[in-house]
Amino acid sequence: MSRFWSDIVHRLTPYVPGEQPALAHPVKLNTNENPYPPSPRVVEAIRRELGEDGASLRKYPDPTARALRETVAKHHGLRVEQVFAGNGSDEVLAHAFQALLKHDQPIRFPDITYSFYPVYAQLYGVEYETVPLNSDFAIDVDDYRAPNGGVLLPNPNAPTGRALPLSEIEVLLKANPDAPVIVDEAYVDFGAESAVNLIDTYPNLLVVQTTSKARSLAGMRVGFAFGDPALIEALTRVKDSFNSYPLDRLAQAAALASYEDRAWFEDSCAKVVSSREKLIGQLQALGFDVVPSAANFVFARHSAHDAATLAAALKTREIFVRHFKLPRIDQHLRISIGTPSECDALVAALGEILA
Ligand SMILES: *Cc1c(COP(=O)(O)O)cnc(C)c1O
């Protein structure tokens, strides 16, 4: 604490990201990174952008990320005015809180969800109500009927991994015609249905996506929002009042190249999904209850072993999983899907710990 702090800083409770251990070869299953590298075309594109002597770095990047937005728009069958690009989808979500979610009524999001949402609400002074998931950790869209100042949910949800069918998202949109509905699709490519195709029908729908998970680019920080041009303009107005150049040159080139290699992207998602299904069976055989997952992680609890103790025991073996000390989920572990050998190491270690 310092007397130099602005008043709001005293009241902030910042988000705490998952640990990035300083070990040579940790089995890192705690932050939902992709276990596979990005397409080789991404690496080539970064080299090309950098050139021999890095002279391109002298100049500011395109403030509108136009080429990237055009490529991503084409990929989704959208127009470029329907696409916003930001420095990671966390930044896109932060802009959405400020640009679209501050109204007279509180916004709603699930009680168990991405723990950054309450942090943004606090930073931007957005009132919110949390809506309990049901006992299966499923979202009941009937709980999100207007009046509210907006609805925000991840699909699939995090950290549960459960997905809502598109028909339910549509129920939500119809029930809230006068409020923004934001669907955070960070994990959609691992098995859920995207709401992108509903954008032309629902001017209140904003879909947020990221290159961090399915496209293996967490280190580049590139995220998007898709929606009606009026929603995109609101985000752009906030962006241009905050940072005109949020995406650096290398990030723009890398993300664009990843959308040009659909086969690589689809193959790495398929590998993750296949490892997920295998891991679910192995965890169940060890006595875990596993929430059905459409994401690149699973959410599991053991009836006879405390979750924090299990996470600590795994950590001594340099295996990192995520434990949230939060109501209703403090006996669960969120485990990212690793390579087959990382999953095997996890299962072997759990076998020893539980024995
Ligand atoms: C990982 C994640 C994000 C943020 O991703 P960025 O790396 O900032 O693009 C957003 N929402 C959810 C639910 C996530 O799990």
Describe the 3D structure.
The protein is an alpha/beta fold and 355 residues long. The protein has 2 domains: 15-37 and 263-354, Alpha-Beta Complex (Aspartate Aminotransferase, domain 1); 40-260, Aspartate Aminotransferase, domain 2. Helix content is 36%, strand content 14%. It has 11 helices and 12 strands. It has helices at 7-11, 40-50, 66-76, 89-100, 116-124, 166-175, 229-239, 249-259, 262-285, 307-316, 340-354, and strands at 27-29, 83-86, 107-110, 128-131, 151-154, 181-184, 205-210, 223-227, 288-290, 297-302, 319-321, 332-336. Strand 5 (151-154), helix 6 (166-175) and strand 6 (181-184) form a beta-alpha-beta unit. Helix 2 runs antiparallel to helix 8, helix 4 crosses helix 5 and helix 9 (262-285) runs parallel beside helix 11. It is globular, with a radius of gyration of 20 Å. The N and C termini lie far apart (46 Å). Bound molecules: pyridoxal-5'-phosphate. Pyridoxal-5'-phosphate (PLP) binds next to helix 4.
